[in-house]
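can u pls check wat happens w/ NAP
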Amino acid sequence: MSFRIEGYVIVSADGMLADASHTMPDSLKFDGDKLFFEQALDRAALIVHGRHSHEQQPNSARRKRLILTGKIKALTVDPEMPNATLWNPDYASFEEACAFADVASGMVAIIGGPLVFDMFMDRYDTFWLSEAPQLRLPGGEGCFVGVPERTPHEVLASHGMTPGEPYLLDAEHGVTVTPWRAARRTT
Ligand SMILES: NC(=O)c1ccc[n+]([C@@H]2O[C@H](COP(=O)([O-])OP(=O)(O)OC[C@H]3O[C@@H](n4cnc5c(N)ncnc54)[C@H](OP(=O)(O)O)[C@@H]3O)[C@@H](O)[C@H]2O)c1
């Protein structure tokens, strides 16, 4: 198996991916970022997320995905989504889950939430961090384990990743996406 592992998240200025009610508010949704995220997921061979982080996009049904859940033990096809595999990482490895989903290569997009991002923290080739600098979500849900005690930048740097040049996604709101790349990789 040969995968390229990429992470995707958009965070508020204080590092939150959701508000205090554990929902992603509309104030954290921007057309430029949505387009960037949709196009990235269209390139992915496989998407990986927790049970509350389905991306809800027009092409979602076509995409292969692993959905993390503690509700099952053995790898199972999701009865509601034929392209989705329910995966409990206590009972099957990532490689076993990929084999079950019949994916052996390509880009794997990790899209959250925080515990799922954390599981792959030492495996990202690139983590695409989108930031909305004009929005704060006090008391919200930090994008990574350890946020807001540490900033998302500090967390990514502590796992050996360094930032490239940011791309502007929304000029009016100053929203950017920055690729954080693992030093061990050259691409
Ligand atoms: N801003 C962004 O870019 C962004 C990105 C992602 C998510 N979000 C938002 O963040 C919120 C979701 O947060 P969340 O913390 O609930 O995350 P989540 O990871 O989507 O859902 C958590 C659930 O996933 C399952 N899970 C996660 N890790 C697991 C593990 N290691 N083993 C077994 N099961 C595991 C568990 O499901 P069971 O209960 O079935 O066991 C758990 O209850 C949503 O509002 C979402 O919209 C925002």
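The chain has a mean pLDDT of 96.
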